[in-house]
Amino acid sequence: MTDADLDILLQQVYEDDQPTVEDLAALLAVEDEEQMQAIFTFADDVRRQHMGDGILLRGLVEFSSHCRNTCAYCGLNRNNTHVQRYRLSSDELLGCAALIASHGIKTIVLQSGEDNGLDANWLAEMITEVKARHDMAVTLCVGERSTEEYALWRQAGADRYLLKIETSDEELYGSLHPGMSFWNRLRCLDDLRMLGYQVGSGCLVGLKGQTLASLARDIVFFAERRLDMTGIGVFIPHAMTAMHDQPHGNVALTLKVVALTRIAVKDAHMPATTALGSISLEDARIAALQAGANVLMPNYTPLPYRRLYDIYPGKRCLAETCGCDSYSDSMMKTIGRAIDYSRGDSLRMPRTRTFSERVTAQIPKL
Questions:
Q1: What is the dihedral of CA 122, 128, 134, 136, to 10 degrees?
Q2: For residue range 13-22, what is the model confidence (pLDDT) as tens digits?
Q3: On the chain, which terminus has fewer CB atoms closer than 10 Å, C or N?
Q4: How far apart are CA 344 and CA 354, in angstroms?
């Protein structure tokens, strides 16, 4: 591909409401170092134009490691009998929220495995209490639940919901998620949008059976869905999963997916994921922040539990206190940007909020 062809393709992806799989796959196939850097620079310019230069912080709390699923890539799968399961108490969770608030962070992300033991009313109480005590947004990431549970948590004050599709290829999705339904995943995303959540999804790069075309379709999926948040992770094999013998995902390809997602979706919040910071000694989150990402998620899970949330090996920030804040500060200095301590709500908030007000009264209660 010539440099001129590259420029034309990048401009087409940026300008098209629905970029083509062919254009995206061609850009994902680029391996020339200078041309890859041109892709990253273009994405960084789009990020600056649409999102500004601030780096948003989301305080992550992994409050339960229980999971009912057997996903082929995740160390929390229920067949892993070597992982020690835990659930945070109410006091522990609220203590995490207080620590996050004391550091000026305006978003808490409450994440767990798909825990059959999660009491929906308990989580609603936690959401209500966090919102009453602190001026912060609440993001949930607890997997597939019923419409009624999503409604309960929305009414309790939850603002956002993360539910990664991992792959938009139905056949590949089925091979990676035994006993799960691709269409139920879509149903959940539709329910969350209907209820007025700010909705996030994302994919993993490096999955067995994945192609450049399927990754390109993932980016089209994100653009069509008009997501408020999009997270691109890199596959890291775990010894206690069905994919234990697979190679880890390619960092350069992952960064290209980050960059092209930014160019295609333009105004979604995009994290530089912890997996990118964990796959090698060199922290690739810095490169992601220079290729379109605008969010960091420091980990505030209490130290005794942080090692037990074992989704992949070698996870960064397992021993640091204070949610890796000092590391975040040094990262910002490296790239000449600054932390943004605002809530960082979706840029489409007026539309989402009005829709929520219109539908909430129609949702059945538990």
A1: 100
A2: 999 988 999 9
A3: C
A4: 18
List pLDDT tens digits, range 313-344: 877 676 655 555 555 667 777 788 999 999 99
In this structure, are residues 271 and 292 in contact, taking their beta carbons and an 8 Å threshold? no
Under DSSP, the state recorded for 299 is: B
Would you say 252 and 211 are in contact if contact means Cβ atoms under 8 Å apart? Answer: no
Q: How far is CA 149 from CA 120, 139, 145, 156, in A?
A: 6, 15, 6, 11
Which of 251, 257, 256, 246 has the alpha carbon at shortest distance from 167? 257
> For 50, which DSSP code?
H
Joined tokens for residue 45? 């310019």
Which stretches does DSSP call E strand in the chain? 55-57, 59-64, 107-112, 137-141, 160-162, 198-205, 229-234, 295-296, 339-340
Distance CA 153, CA 206 (A): 33
- Neighbouring C-alpha atoms within 13 Å toward the C-beta of 133: 18
Task: Copy the structure tokens of residue 142.
Answer: 């607890």
Contact at 8 Å (CB) between 206 and 232? no
Domain ranges of the chain: 3-361
DSSP state of 241: S
Is residue 149 a contact partner of residue 120, using CB atoms and an 8 Å limit? yes
d(CA 326, CA 155): 35
Q: Tokens for 286, please give them.
A: 């810095």
At 18, give phi and psi (nearest 5°): -130, 90
Whole-number Å distance between alpha carbons of 277 and 284: 5
With a threshold of 0.85, does the pTM exceed it? yes
Instruction: Write the secondary structure of 44-81 as one string of H (helix), E (strand) and C (coil).
Output: HHHHHHHHCCCEEECEEEEEECCCCCCCCCCCCCCCCC
Joined tokens for residue 157: 């004050």
The CATH architecture of the domain made up of 3-361 is Alpha-Beta Barrel (3.20)
What are the C-alpha distances in Å from 218 to residues 63, 248, 266? 29, 19, 15
CB 142 within 8 A of CB 111: yes
